[in-house]
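Reviewer comment 2.1 asked that we show a complete input and output for one of the modelled complexes. We chose the magnesium ion case, as it is the one discussed in the main text.
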Amino acid sequence: MELPEQQFNTWIRPLPPAEVIHAEGVTCVSVRVPNRFMLDWIRTQYSARLEAILTELNGSEVRLDIAQAARATMPMQAGPALRPPGMVMPGRALPPNAQFASNSGQPLMPPQQAAAYPQQTGHSTGQAPVQGGPAMVTLPQYQDAAPNRSRSQPQVMGLNPALTFDNLVPGRANQMARTAALHVAGAPGHMYNPLFIYGGVGLGKTHLMNAVGNALLADKPDARILYLHAEQFISDVVKNYQRKTFDELKAKYHQLDLLLIDDVQFFAGKDRTQEEFFNAFEALLAKKAHIIMTSDTYPKGLANIDERLTSRFDSGLTVAIEPPELEMRVAILIKKAALEAIDMPEDVAFFVAKNVRANVRELEGALRKVLAFAKFSHKEITIALAREALKDLLSIQNRQISVENIQKTVADFYKIKVADMYSKKRPASIAKPRQIAMYLAKELTQKSLPEIGELFGGRDHTTVLHAVRKIMGERGKDTELNQQLHVLEQTLKG
Ligand code: ADP
Ligand code: MG
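Response of the prediction step:
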């Protein structure tokens, strides 16, 4: 009753019966789902609520254990995930420049397609379907265009096995792109073809597209996948052009299940390459192979690329990856440190995330510096150490501390809205951070009390004075508050 019917039908209804185990006063409800992307989605979106409902119904604690079914025992049923990602996130607005498009303006999931969706079992044996054979089950994405293909031929080229969904931190910035990518990994050749992912440098485009390849490979070890940078494609075309060996080129590209082609903006001005790519593109789409492309801009924004091509790029699904917001940057730092078995204190992650904003690649660079610095100096990871390690990087940034910056930093730190800094709201969860921000404004800027009052929604200077005195007094007694103020001061001073 809480979910829109479509969502219920897509994610909850297809679940197989659960197994219930009682042990030591706890009830464990164990559910097995057919594939990886369904697992991810149900875990992140629904498991907490499901657990709460089960606990309520049961009258005592219920633990929900959701995992992927072993291949052989997978239930026979239609696959999930044929929903436009934007719609599965109630209450979340689309990022400003994200685009969703579907061919011919149809809904992204025609119901008959959901019904015709092949189930995911039993075709990882690698046997090519016998052409024209009688009782062949047709599995569109694995129909083999080259039945004679040698089994010893490498099926996967260019993928980086380190770039997986597991180590891609999800967040608002990549939510839609990640969701779409998960869908493609689970059902290549169906929805969202081609998938066009665009965004600035270092935001995770290459990572995401490799994750699709790796996920598909884990699911279907026999899938033929090719990852390559657009520049490699260009040089391939040039080479084959010189040697007049276009048939080889065709054979290489036209027989894939999944083609991942990175940074297509590099096709700009390369007419011959564009033509070849167009041919490969059409051939692959015709046999329902999946194509994923990345670019630094949306298809229509690509300069010097034939319009025939850019409009084809736009004919599946186009999604943007945005720069990560603060919370996501913190999560990325903690996750990356954890991957190296290092426990990154949250205040240090906050400090670094606050000061390194551009993209994930820079964030990684900063993290590497901090970790190396800690290792070689045999010191604990603290804000002071991070500041030392990132000295060069921080000194380039403008270190003028403004009241706005203080308001923003304090709001981020206490997870309230910046607008609450000016609002008249009084609950302690808001009033206290506001007083802290006033205190820091007095301490760290040259502004007078009336000026500060003005910047906090036109408050009287006596209100500011009261806040400053109160926080100063509490700081002496409350070590936790003192510690928080310390983190904020360090962060603001950079
Ligand atoms: P792009 O292709 O958009 O320039 P990359 O995919 O090369 O960016 O990402 C840059 C670096 O940041 C890579 O090391 C990648 O693993 C990492 N990265 C990007 N986004 C994330 C994320 N959400 N979680 C974890 N690591 C990420
Ligand atoms: Mg890239």
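Residues 205-206, 262-263 surround magnesium ion (ligand 2) (CB under 6 Å). We note this here for comparison with the apo prediction described in Section 3.2.
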